[in-house]
Design a protein that fits this description.
Layout: E1 24-27, E2 40-43, E3 60-63, E4 70-73, E5 76-79, E6 85-88
Antiparallel strand pairs: 1-2, 3-6, 4-5
Length: 100
Amino acid sequence: MRRVNIENPPFQFDDEDPEGFRAGMRRVGKTLGATQLGMTVYELPPARRSARSTTRTPKEWLLELQGRPTLRHPDGSHVLEPWDRVCFPSRPGRETRPTT
């Protein structure tokens, strides 16, 4: 059995993210040996934004661990609380295979 602790992962940063949208990322699906399920932990510093689209497959969801970010979606926006969970439905034409 493989395991990973996501409390303080070593985050990676994409130098191509525009200023104001830079977020830390740690993909842990491969570390766990996942082949059909991906898992990524993001660190979004205060006053930063994320331009990540999480609507590619019907199997994507978000678990807010800490903080109170605003989640924007086609019907408006909601402030998330710690431990809130959200499921993202896929959009027509955007269905893809899950990645790790």
